[in-house]
Design a protein that fits this description.
The protein is α/β, with parallel strands linked by helices. Helix content is 40%, strand content 17%. α6 runs parallel beside α8.
Length: 186
């Protein structure tokens, strides 16, 4: 099995308002949920973090967002604000590097904090997975998390932050395993 660096890493995912809808209405894009799992170099779970975040404007939670994520207005009404959850998440991460499926979550975190407040850089799992697959005979039709999970027999992500982190972790375990067949098409 291939390994990550011999230190802990935080796999995380965000759920946030639809950027196109926010842009069209002049609203800031707010994060509604952070989910994360601290893992060791073999992707074994060490600790979990999850929190909903009360947005500044609850009307940002559109029906399409509720349908996609399952997050409802009552999940957010009494949730802590981003400053509180952001501090808790930064403390949870400590000195561990961060990894999310795509760069968009890092952009959203940077924007929400106003700077990069973490001790270490980040890695996007999509590029990591593509790099691992580059020397194989796999033919990948799409590098979306959902498509990759389908291709590798991992349960599909459900667009909840914790659910997507679980899928990403299991997908990475499969991709890092050298016992996969060499010439199948995915």
């Amino acid at each position: 099995m291939m390994f990550l660096p011999k230190k802990t890493m935080v796999l995380f995912d965000l759920e946030y308002a639809d950027p196109k809808e926010c842009e069209a209405n002049g609203w800031p894009i707010e994060i509604f949920e952070i989910g994360a799992c601290k893992v060791d170099h073999l992707l074994n779970e060490i600790e979990w973090f999850q929190s909903f975040i009360r947005p500044t404007r609850l009307e940002f939670l559109t029906p399409s967002c509720t349908i996609l994520t399952g997050i409802k207005k009552n999940n957010l009404e009494f949730a802590p604000d981003f400053d509180t959850v952001g501090r808790q998440f930064r403390d949870f991460c400590g000195f561990s590097p961060l990894m999310s499926w795509s760069i968009s979550d890092f952009v959203r975190l940077h924007y929400s904090y106003g700077e990069w407040p973490f001790a270490y850089p980040f890695f996007d799992a999509l590029s990591f997975a593509a790099g691992l697959m580059a020397n194989s005979d796999y033919i990948i039709k799409s590098y979306s998390l959902q498509s990759m999970c389908e291709s590798f027999g991992v349960s599909k992500p459900n667009h909840s932050a914790i659910g997507d982190v679980k899928c990403m972790k299991e997908l990475l375990k499969k991709i890092m395993n050298p016992d996969f067949p060499d010439s199948e098409t995915y």
